[in-house]
Amino acid sequence: MSNPHCRQTLEEEKERKSECLPPEPPADDPESVKIVFKLPNDTRVERRFLFGQSLTVIHDFLFSLKETPEKFQIVTNFPRRVLPCLPTEEQSNPPTLKEAGLSRSEVLFVQDLTDD
Fold first, then answer.
1. Rounded to 10 degrees, what is the CA torsion of 6, 16, 94, 88?
2. HEC profile for the chain?
3. Is the predicted pLDDT of residue 116 greater than 80, yes or no?
4. CA max distance for the chain
5. How far apart are CA 55 and CA 110, in angstroms?
6. How far apart are CA 13 and CA 73, in angstroms?
7. At 7, is the pLDDT very low, low, confident or very high (cuts 50, 70, 90)?
8. Contact 46, 34 (CB under 8 A)
9. pLDDT of 23-69, one tens digit each?
10. How many CB atoms lie within 10 A of CB 87?
11. pLDDT at position 115, please?
């Protein structure tokens, strides 16, 4: 049922997001956080971010990957919680990685929220 025009727009949007991403910090940056993402299709993706960056950057990075579903949420494994990566009415600015309590090395799970 998916309309090919729609799909194209999504790809363009993913491309735009990937162009807007801040550069990946070096591994020896004391402010860097290494995150391994587990995608719904069992792919693992690893990237570094900075503690001071907003969770939105993580969301945008994942969104820009072609393997990531259109709608998704990012979940920590233990304790299990959904990371607030997008602005909400209560919180117009998502927290930074540090405020979200992420450590220097994390494994996060990407859950597909796209309606079938």
1. -30
2. CCCHHHHHHHHHHHHHHHHHCCCCCCCCCCCEEEEEEECCCCCEEEEEEECCCEHHHHHHHHHHCCCCCCCEEEEECCCCEECCCCCCCCCCCCCECCCCCCCCEEEEEEEECCCC
3. no
4. 48
5. 13
6. 18
7. low
8. yes
9. 999 999 999 999 999 999 999 999 999 999 999 999 999 999 999 99
10. 12
11. 73
CA distance 88 to 7: 26
- Residue 100 pLDDT greater than 60, yes or no: yes
Give yes or no for a contact between 35 and 6, defined as CB atoms under 8 angstroms apart: no
Strand 32-38 to 72-76 pairing: unpaired
The two tokens of residue 112 are 């597909």
Amino acid of residue 105: S
CB-based contacts of 21: which residues, under 8 Å, 6+ apart? 57, 60, 61, 64
Which residues contact residue 57 at a Cβ distance below 8 angstroms, ignoring those fewer than 6 apart? Answer: 21, 22, 49
**């600015």: which residue's tokens?**
93
